[in-house]
Specification:
By secondary structure, this protein is an alpha/beta fold. The protein has two domains: 198 residues, Periplasmic binding protein-like II (D-Maltodextrin-Binding Protein, domain 2, 3-Layer(aba) Sandwich); 99 residues, 3-Layer(aba) Sandwich (D-Maltodextrin-Binding Protein, domain 2), CATH 3.40.190.10. The protein is 47% helix and 16% strand. The strands form two sheets. The protein has a five-stranded mixed sheet with strand order 2-1-3-10-4, with helices on both faces. Strands 7-6-8-5-9 form a five-stranded mixed sheet, with helices on both faces. Helix 6 links the parallel strand 6 and strand 7. Helix 2 crosses helix 11 and helix 12 crosses helix 13. The radius of gyration is 22 Å and the shape is globular. It starts with a helix and ends with a helix. Keywords: Signal. Pfam families: NMT1. It is found in: Periplasm. It comes from Oceanobacillus picturae. This is ABC transporter, substrate-binding protein, aliphatic sulfonates family.
C-alpha cells in the first residue's frame, strides 16, 4: 500500500519536476535591435526556426529605434545583448567607460541602404547628386557615415555639393521623403522596394556595393555581462551561426516565408525580392566573425566623416574567440 501511495505521488509530481528541470535549463536573454529591418533576416530566422530555443535560450526581442536608444538600453541593463552598428561601441569606449561594450558576433557585413531618387533616373550617375536636396541619416550613425564616404569617393562633397538635411528622426525619414522636397534619400529594404512599387521613389544605387565590407550591425554586450554569462553568449552565437548558414543555403522566397511574421504589412513577393537584393550583394555575413580588415574599414569611414573619437584597437572591443570556437566545432 505504501509503495502504491509513493508511486501515485511520483506520477502526480512528475510534471512539476520536469517543469522545474526545464526552467532551470533555460536562460532568458533580453535582446534589443536598433531598428526593424529586413537587413537582419538571419536574426529573425534564428527566432522563428527555434535555434535559440534549441540552445536553451528564451530570447525576448525589442526594437529601440535608433543607435543612441539602443546603447542606452544596453548600458542601463534594459537589454543584455544589442544588435547595432559597431561604431556605437567605439563611442562608448572613447568616453572612458569602465565596462566597455564588446562586439562578439557580426550579422551584416555591408551597408544596407540604397540611394532612392524621387524621379526616375534610368541613366543615373553619381554626378547627378550635385546641387540636389538630399535627405540624410543621423549624424554619426553608420548609414550617414557610409553615405558620405561613398559620395566623397565619387568626388561629391556632402557639405558643399548638396543641400544635406539631417534633422529628421530615423523612423520618420521615409514619410518625410514622400511629403517633402528632397530629391534623394538613403533607405533600407523593404522600404526602398516598397517606395519603388508604389511610385514614391526609384532605387538608383546601392551604398553597400560601393562601400566594401564593414561590421555594419553586430551583436554586442557589456564586458561584465560577457564575463558573467559566457556560456549563454556562446549558445546565442551558435544559434546565430545556424541561422546564418540557413540563410546562405536557402532561397530568398524560403527566407521571406520564415520571417514574414516580422513584416506583416509587407507582401511576400516584395520581401523575397528585397532579400534577394541583399543576398546578391553579400550583405548577410555567413559566419559571426568580425575580422580586423572590416574593423579598419569602419574606422576609415568614421575618420573620413570626422566622427572617429579615438583610434581604438581591434583587440580592445572585438572578441572572436567564441565565434571561432563555434565555427570550428
Amino acid at each position: 500500500m505504501k509503495k502504491l501511495i509513493k508511486m501515485t505521488l511520483i506520477v502526480a509530481l512528475l510534471p512539476l519536476i520536469l517543469l522545474g528541470c526545464n526552467q532551470s535549463s533555460t536562460s532568458s536573454i533580453k535582446l534589443t535591435e536598433v531598428t526593424r529591418s529586413l537587413f537582419y533576416a538571419p536574426q529573425y530566422v534564428a527566432l522563428e526556426k527555434g535555434y535559440f530555443e534549441e540552445e536553451g535560450l528564451d530570447v525576448e526581442l525589442q526594437t529601440t529605434w535608433g543607435g543612441d536608444k539602443t546603447m542606452t538600453a544596453l548600458l542601463s541593463d534594459g537589454a543584455d545583448i544589442a544588435l547595432v552598428g559597431s561604431e556605437t561601441s567605439i563611442y562608448v569606449y572613447a568616453q572612458n567607460s569602465k565596462d566597455p561594450v564588446i562586439n562578439f558576433a557580426q550579422l551584416t557585413q555591408t551597408d544596407g541602404t540604397f540611394l532612392v531618387a524621387k524621379e526616375p533616373k534610368p541613366d543615373f550617375v553619381w554626378e547627378d547628386l550635385k546641387g540636389s536636396t538630399f535627405l540624410g541619416q543621423r549624424k554619426g550613425g553608420m548609414p550617414q557615415m557610409v553615405g558620405e564616404f561613398v559620395l566623397k569617393n565619387h568626388g561629391i562633397d556632402p557639405k558643399n555639393d548638396l543641400d544635406l538635411q539631417q534633422n529628421i528622426d530615423f523612423a520618420n525619414i521615409p514619410g518625410a521623403f514622400v511629403s517633402g522636397d528632397a530629391e534623394y534619400v538613403q533607405l533600407f529594404e523593404p522600404t526602398a522596394s516598397t517606395f519603388e512599387k508604389e511610385g514614391n521613389g526609384h532605387i538608383v544605387a546601392s551604398f553597400g556595393e560601393e562601400s566594401g565590407n564593414v561590421p555594419y550591425t553586430v551583436f554586442m554586450t557589456k564586458q561584465s555581462y560577457l564575463d558573467e554569462n559566457e556560456e549563454e553568449v556562446q549558445k546565442f552565437t551558435r544559434a546565430v551561426y545556424k541561422a546564418q548558414q540557413w540563410v546562405e543555403e536557402n532561397s530568398a522566397e524560403e527566407i521571406a516565408s520564415v520571417i514574414k511574421p516580422y513584416f506583416e504589412d509587407t507582401e511576400l513577393d516584395l520581401l523575397a525580392s528585397s532579400i534577394e537584393r541583399y543576398k546578391g550583394q553579400q550583405s548577410f555575413a555567413t559566419n559571426p566573425i568580425l575580422d580586423k580588415e572590416e574593423w579598419d574599414n569602419l574606422k576609415a569611414i568614421m575618420e573620413e566623416a570626422g566622427e572617429l573619437p579615438a583610434d581604438i584597437p581591434y583587440e580592445d572591443l572585438v572578441n572572436t574567440t567564441i565565434a571561432e570556437e563555434i565555427i570550428n566545432d
